[in-house]
Amino acid sequence: MKNIIILISGGGSNMKSIVKRAQKAQWLHRFQTQISLVLSNNPLAEGLEWAQEQGLPTAVVDHRQFLQDAHPRRAFEEALIQRIEPHRPELVVLAGFMRILSPYFVSHYANKVMNIHPSLLPAFTGLHTHQRAIEAGVKFSGASVHWVSEELDAGHIIDQALVPLLPDDTQISLASRVLTQEHLLYPRVIENWLKTQTA
Ligand code: GRF
Q: Is it the case that residue 92 has pLDDT exceeding 80?
């Protein structure tokens, strides 16, 4: 049995699209792969309740519990690893996970951490990607799924979705169209990756 772990911080719409695809495309039967944990740094993440309703194991490792620690980021990541380790994941999927992971975590799960970023990398790394795309006057934006490396939003790009900007776009309208494409892109990328693991 192969395990996929999904990390979220909020609504978890990408996690939901992945879980639905896993069910619809029968990943368990076809790839002997299950989503064995949905983990959030945010105890109030709506995605947790939805995952529980789907019968998926969930966990919370609240990053705020470690703020008093001498090394808060390291303490948080050690707690994350402690919670993830028993699953021995083939893949750690960041899906709207809003914490930056240090080289410590990334190297522990080297070449196993995937992320989705709401821009056409390498353009617009970091935050507020849609507003920045509009302000820059680009004609296309989109989403990128990439392997997480030690540099933020800079790992090998696996695939991308292209979204044209419209003249009257706001960051809300653009974000909505990009998110729709994310929900198609991420499950497809993971399923294609699963196919390479069993080929
Ligand atoms: C999305 O824009 C995604 O690109 C970014 O986080 C946002 C929310 O994702 N990583 P989700 O709805 O929590 O999956």
A: yes
